Prior knowledge:
This protein has a six-stranded parallel sheet with strand order 1-3-5-7-9-11, with no helix packed on it. It has strands at 7-8, 21-23, 30-31, 44-46, 53-54, 67-69, 76-77, 90-92, 99-100, 113-115, 122-123, 136-138, 145-146, 159-160, 168-169, 182-185, 191-192, 203-207, 224-229. The termini are far apart. It is built from no helices and 19 strands. It has a domain at 1-143: Alpha-Beta Horseshoe (Leucine-rich repeat, LRR (right-handed beta-alpha superhelix)). By secondary structure, the protein is mostly beta strands.
Amino acid sequence: xxxxxxxxxxxxxxxxxxxxxxxxxxxxxxxxxxxxxxxxxxxxxxxxxxxxxxxxxxxxxxxxxxxxxxxxxxxxxxxxxxxxxxxxxxxxxxxxxxxxxxxxxxxxxxxxxxxxxxxxxxxxxxxxxxxxxxxxxxxxxxxxxxxxxxxxxxxxxxxxxxxxxxxxxxxxxxxxxxxxxxxxxxxxxxxxxxxxxxxxxxxxxxxxxxxxxxxxxxxxxxxxxxxxxxxxxxxxx
Length: 237
């Protein structure tokens, strides 16, 4: 691949079912939409620091891809970019990423933990949905909302901390997270959707606020076992 290429075109290697590895040249800046989608044998790929944007579906359904490391330089990850990479167990995100698109890492069945750097200000809906082995999440301190279904069906998720500054927890964010037993809600959160915790199992919410804020949905599901008001973050550890 020529070192003069700046943009890897849309679907350029899509459906190359026998492709196992490729080295992307330094100087490339954009991985186009669907560039490596349905590369079913792709095991590894090296993404250089020059890449700033990973477009939608770039690595969609690469079921053999096991690890991805994004260097500082990447600013955005598109929708479905790594969705259905079923054997991906490790995803390292560089500290320049600002946005993660809808469904970006959904259905990454073997992904166990993820650290979202503080450079990230937006995490899209369904971005980590149905990650069956995801147990631990470290969220960016600079997000303001947790979008709908972000962690829905992460059935073994146990450790996640809502950062100070988050103002909204939207629909089904933690739905069916059956292993999540404790969650601290900072006082900055002024809106929670009714079904945000649907089908959790015996979840206790530790809320920094002394009483239920006006814009919280008052009909929280039965899966919320208890709410502790006036709590400290350490209470939920």
